[in-house]
Design brief:
Layout (H helix, E strand, L loop, with lengths): L2 H7 L13 H14 L10 H29 L4 E5 L3 E2 L4 H8 L2 H10 L4 H6 L5 E2 L3 H15 L4 E6 L7 E5 L2 E5 L12 E12 L2 E6 L5 E6 L2 E13 L6 E10 L3 H9 L2 H12 L16 H25 L6 H4 E6 L6 H12 L4 H11 E4 L10 E3 H7 L1 H21 L4 H7 L2 E2 L5 E3 H7 L3 E4 L2 H11 L1 H6 L4 E3 L6 H7 L2 H11 L21 H26 L8 E6 L8 H17 L8 E6 L7 H19 L7 E6 L4 H7 L5 E4 L11 H7 L3 E4 L5 H8 L5 E2 L4 H10 L3 H7 L1 H11 L12 H9 L5 H20 L1 H13 L6 H13 L9
Parallel strand pairs: 1-4, 1-12, 4-11, 12-13, 13-17, 17-18, 19-20, 19-22, 20-21, 22-23, 23-24
Antiparallel strand pairs: 2-3, 5-6, 7-10, 8-9, 10-11, 14-16, 15-16
Bound molecules: (1S)-1,5-anhydro-1-(4-bromo-2,5-dihydroxyphenyl)-D-glucitol (Z57).
């Protein structure tokens, strides 16, 4: 851009450069921001400067709507949803906000006129990876849909300085690198240093006589730190509503300095400061809890207490009495990570605000709802009573009191059933007594829900069966959903355009059930053709990116067979590998056979301490190394592990998939949401009857879904009768040959022990029944290959599949929560 042009843009005539949506206003604002915020002119700006100028230009437009929303909610005294979550896996903001503002196209044009590389600017954003996987991403999709459905909401969580680690692959192994997402600043957040609450830890409790004459309890913590608010605006799609994501950062209070001054221990005081700030330093990188980690309990209490104190402050600001707290707020507990909120709200009401126990308990129960996300026993959080007592002595007292009342209620309804009482207690007795966070969450909530129909049934009949006997009306299902904005419009603009063109409108973006219209065109040869071109183009984009990342070359004509999700044994990435090894051996035995070309693509992070999951990554890469270079294979099958599967890279991948692998052992995957993202982008699913797969199959039709494997009931039956995987290993020669080939060192340069921990575990234990489903999986994959060979029919199935996936929008899920669980009406903010 010439200097003359920038001078013109800097002229005083700039209408609404902070809020204007015209091309001129956007261009002017961009140049202003580059100049006044980054301190740069075009010729010397780095790509990061160019990104920041774009981000601030968009942010200004969000803030205008945000202030208006805040005013509207205040005037209306709007009932507000508080979504309490230890994780928000947001993904990049810029492209999503452009879509929600409706200015993607005009921004592209503005960029072109300013001679800026639009795609490069979007690439520049470092995503906030403040979550591990499905649970954190669900919270982010829900924030998008809450705003889009005009429901006043605050997301409360932790502003981790380091989010989920960056994954690289070295010599086939996962290597973790710390995620320094804040390194270059974060234009999307606004620090609120004045919104700051003290958070106590440790110390003791005592009774005292309050000024009003009553006998009260108080907690005298031995340590107090501060939680400071950082706010991010969350705009809905095509609406004026902006909600608030408020994340807490831990800071040492000023008093730490005075202590140093008094005792002359300057170094000690600085150390104490650092210690205090570790609370919000880093996200725990497991998709299930790490037992007994004190810092994790501190994180949970930290963000819960900050959030509840904030809610009380907001309520007292407008109403002046806490009696109506549960009318103003409903708080959703995203898993048990924030379940301490039940005890903390009781403490705040009783100890800090002098409320009577009975009233406090009624309001508390009316405030909370709890979502369960797993049935895996190892993923159910408990904390040792000893740790609890040391860190949160007053909360332990309160939990004991809640438990007393609760267990009396159980005894009343089920007399002479002490084993039931023991099962339901908030405290697990035994060598080491432990607090059961899930039981606390159920007892302290008015509603409990699972995340898919099958999962919610199992919650009622297995995990919380005793609670279901006591309170059947408390239990609900809300099947998960994903945001059509991020996972269709932002990530797959070609497909979005084709859908809009075919439907004659783009209303489907806010009402995904309208995708049904595509059904009428599934047999239209011209649409099939264009559908295919869109898919091939996405595959080519992905292949280019992958080649640049890994050197692996993929042929966009091959079937892209994809499994991308956290590495976990229950998700059975190793079942997928056994299929690849089987194809490989068939080629070795009969090199000239006709086979369908497939590119197997894996992505996903393993928890750093999960040895077997890391070994599975190594195995994938080891098989890739051999298969990709085998002259007999000759490129007909390719295996690739895409490094660092996160939201940003997921957005590249979903549009490129032909086949989506959803092959968890039935009864183990609560819902899954990747299954929805792939399917909405036209991939067909090969899957078990697990989680939301069941409902996806129901919606798209059994004839458009590749089903295999045991049902959850069959899994339970088999476990009951005694599962003996070694018998399967010896009975099936192909299965044996596949496992033996791994053990022969064929994929590990002769190393015959490298993968033994994995293969021995499969043969002798196989807790997720890989061997039991192996044969059915191979047969189902053969059907997939047959179906692929009829390209037109595959396209037709793909179109039907998308047409019938409307249910899996997070908008639908949020509307169900709002109506059936939260009882919260929308408040529309003018645009
Ligand atoms: C997590 O990502 C999920 C469950 C958990 O208990 C934890 Br901890 C983390 C996942 C489930 O595994 C998925 O099946 C589900 O789709 C997702 O949560 C969202 O509900």
């Amino acid at each position: 851009m010439s200097t003359a042009q920038s001078t013109k843009l800097l002229s005083p005539n700039r209408e609404h450069t902070r809020t204007g949506m015209s091309k001129e206003a956007l261009k002017q604002a961009y140049i202003d921001n580059l100049f006044y915020i980054q301190g740069r002119f075009r010729e010397v700006a780095t790509s990061h400067d160019l990104y920041m100028a774009a981000a601030y230009t968009v942010r200004d437009r969000l803030l205008a709507r945000w202030v208006k929303s805040a005013q509207a909610f205040k005037v209306n005294r709007a009932r507000t949803v508080c979504y309490l979550s230890a994780e928000f896996l947001l993904g990049p903001h810029l492209a999503n906000n452009l879509v929600n503002l409706g200015i993607t196209k005009i921004s592209q044009e503005s960029a072109a006129e300013l001679e800026l590389d639009f795609a490069m600017i979007l690439e520049e954003e470092e995503e906030p990876g403040l979550g591990n996987g499905g649970l954190g991403r669900l919270a982010a999709c829900f924030m998008d849909s809450l705003a889009t459905q005009c429901i006043p909401a605050i997301g409360y969580g932790i502003r981790y300085e380091f989010g989920i680690f960056d994954q690289t692959i070295e010599n086939g192994w996962q290597v973790e690198r710390s995620d320094t997402w804040l390194r270059n600043g974060n234009p999307w957040e606004i620090p609120r240093p004045k919104i700051c609450f003290p958070i106590g830890f440790g110390g003791y409790t005592e009774q005292y006589r309050h000024a009003d004459g009553s006998l009260r309890h108080r907690w005298l913590p031995s340590l107090e730190i501060n939680g400071v608010a950082y706010d991010t605006p969350i705009l809905g799609y095509g609406v004026g509503n902006v909600n608030l994501l408020r994340l807490w950062k831990a800071e040492a209070p000023q008093s730490f300095d005075f202590q140093a001054f008094n005792v002359g221990d300057y170094y000690g005081a600085v150390h104490a400061k650092i210690e205090a700030e570790t609370i919000s330093k880093v996200l725990y990188p497991n998709d299930e809890p790490e037992v007994g980690k004190e810092l994790r309990l501190k994180q949970q209490f930290f963000f819960v207490s900050c959030s509840l104190q904030d809610m009380i402050r907001l309520h007292l600001n407008t109403v002046g009495s806490l009696d109506t707290f549960a009318n103003k707020f409903v708080a959703q507990l995203n898993d048990t990570h924030p379940a301490l909120a039940v005890a903390e709200l009781m403490r705040l009401f009783i100890d800090e605000h002098g409320m009577a126990w009975e009233q406090a308990w009624t309001i508390t129960r009316n405030t909370f709802c709890y979502t369960n996300h797993t049935l895996l026993p190892e993923a159910l959080e408990t904390w040792s009573v000893a740790l609890f007592e040391r860190l949160l002595p007053r909360h332990l007292e309160i939990i004991y009191l809640i438990n007393q009342d609760f267990l009396n209620q159980v005894r009343e309804k089920f007399p002479d059933d002490e084993t039931r009482v023991i099962r339901m207690s908030l405290i697990a007795e035994g060598e080491q007594r432990r607090v059961r966070m899930a039981n606390l969450a159920v007892v302290g909530s008015q509603a409990v829900n699972g995340v898919a129909a099958l999962h919610s049934e199992l919650v009622k009949t297995t995990l919380f069966n005793d609670f279901y006997d006591l309170w059947p009306e408390k239990f609900h299902n809300v099947t998960n959903g994903v945001s059509p904005r991020r996972f269709m419009v932002v990530s797959n603009p070609r497909l979005a355009d084709l859908i809009s063109h075919t439907c004659g409108h783009n209303d489907w973006i806010r009402d995904l059930s309208l995708l049904r219209h595509l059904e009428h065109h599934a047999d239209d040869v011209e649409l099939q053709q264009r559908w295919r071109e869109v898919k091939i183009a996405a595959k080519q984009d992905f292949a280019n990116w992958l080649q640049q990342q890994t050197g692996v070359v993929l042929d966009p004509q091959a079937m892209f067979d994809v499994q991308a999700k956290r590495l976990h044994e229950y998700k059975r990435q190793h079942l997928n590998i056994l299929h690849i090894i089987r194809l490989y051996q068939r080629i070795q035995q009969n090199p000239n056979q006709e086979i369908v070309s497939r590119a197997f693509i894996f992505g996903g992070k393993a928890a750093p301490g999960y040895y077997l999951a890391k070994l599975i990554i190594k195995l994938i890469n080891a098989v890739a190394e051999v298969v990709n270079h085998d002259p007999l294979v000759n490129g007909r099958i390719r295996v690739a592990f895409m490094p660092d599967f996160n939201v940003k890279n997921g957005q590249r991948l979903y549009p490129a998939a032909d086949l989506s692998e959803q092959i968890s052992l039935a009864g183990k995957e609560a819902s899954g949401t990747g299954n929805m993202k792939f399917s909405l982008n036209g991939a067909l699913t090969i899957g078990t009857l697990d989680g939301a797969n069941v409902e996806i199959r129901e919606e798209v039709g059994a004839e458009n879904f590749f089903l295999f494997g045991m049902t959850a009931a069959e899994v339970t039956a088999k476990q009951r009768e005694g599962y003996r995987p070694w018998e399967l290993y010896h009975a099936d020669p192909e299965l044996k040959a596949d496992i033996d080939l791994i053990n022969s060192g064929h994929f590990s340069r002769g190393d015959m022990v490298l993968f033994r921990p994995l293969t021995d575990h499969l043969i002798n234990h196989d807790p997720f029944m890989v061997l039991a489903d192996y044969r059915a999986y191979l047969e189902c994959q053969a059907q997939v290959s047959t179906a692929w060979s009829d390209a037109a029919n595959w396209d037709r199935m793909s179109i039907l599949n998308v047409a019938r996936m409307g249910k899996f929008s997070s908008d639908r899920a949020i509307v169900e929560y709002a109506k059936n669980i939260w009882n919260v009406p929308p408040v529309t903010v003018e645009r």
